[in-house]
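Bug report

Summary: structure tokens for Glutaredoxin differ between web form and batch submission.
Environment: batch mode, default settings.
Steps: 1) Submit the sequence below via batch. 2) Compare with the web form result.

Sequence submitted:
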Amino acid sequence: MAKVEIYTTPTCPYCMAAKALLRKKGVAYEETDVSRDPDLRMAMTQRAGGRRSVPQIFIDGQSVGGSDDIHALDAQGKLDGLLGLPA
């Protein structure tokens, strides 16, 4: 199974949607709340290639974008493979 990291804020509906999709697939993830720590937010922004919006999602260290991006990957049938889920 892939290592999944997600940067979030508590009230973000897109963060909630992304986490719900991961939970639905039975995927564990490491969540980092960047709402109260500007240094964490800056680290996320640098890691995500300048993107400041949340969520920012990383699978095995690679940025895959935000909620819309992982939902699009799922719709295209590509997300399960990235997550290391059986076909």
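Above is the batch result. After comparison, the two runs are identical; trailing whitespace caused the diff. The chain has a mean pLDDT of 96. The longest strand covers residues 4-8.
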